[in-house]
Design a protein that fits this description.
It contains 3 helices and 5 strands. With about 170 residues, it is of the alpha/beta class. The chain has a single domain, classed as Lipoprotein like domain (Double Stranded RNA Binding Domain, 2-Layer Sandwich), CATH 3.30.160.150. The protein has a 5-stranded mixed beta sheet with strand order 2-1-3-4-5, covered by helices on one side. A hairpin with a 5-residue loop joins strand 3 and strand 4. Helix 2 crosses helix 3. The relative contact order is 0.16.
Length: about 170
């Protein structure tokens, strides 16, 4: 019995060492460049759900989102932030059976002096879901949940692009 416990601990130790050797790190562990210490958003409503999610991620990573341009060390300019849904399939009765949701984010980053740190980045995500006209309220909730997940994923992707500035 003792041998199998030691063997399990040894195998877990080997697994953790190999994971750290391959560059694995937890999702929320983002190291941003010092130029991104104080960030301001341009071209977007600060109350937009995606911008609020991005603000939370920046704050968690150690940055401060400021409101005054004089305080900013970096400017995140959002050229496009939008999404919609389109019909993906229709049944033989002519009713919608499946929708595709899409969300697009175009942004660039400049330092306080106007020097480009990151050129225009285009991120786009799509998700599909089945639509049931007999469960409209449930499907509306599912759509909102998918949109929330898409915003989180877009912010995660954008944060990875920002993290690359520090390397």
């Amino acid at each position: 019995m003792r041998y199998s416990v030691n063997k399990k601990i040894f195998l877990m130790l080997i697994m953790f060492v190999s994971m750290s050797a391959c560059g694995f790190h937890l999702r929320g562990d983002v190291k941003l460049a010092t130029q991104l210490n104080q960030v301001i958003f341009q071209g977007a409503d600060i109350y937009d759900p995606l911008v609020r999610e991005w603000t939370r991620s920046l704050t968690t990573a150690g940055s401060t989102v400021v409101e005054d341009m004089q305080d900013a060390t970096a400017i995140i300019h959002i050229q496009k932030n939008g999404g919609d849904r389109r019909v993906l399939s229709v049944g033989s009765d002519g009713k919608v059976r499946e929708y595709e949701l899409y969300q697009t984010l175009d942004f660039s980053v400049r330092d306080a002096g106007g020097r480009e740190l990151l050129g225009v980045q285009t991120l786009m995500l799509t998700r599909t879901y089945l639509f049931d006209s007999n469960d409209v309220l449930g499907k509306a909730g599912e759509e909102e949940s998918l949109r929330r997940d898409m915003r989180r994923d877009l912010v995660r992707l954008a944060m990875l692009r920002l993290e690359a500035l520090g390397r």
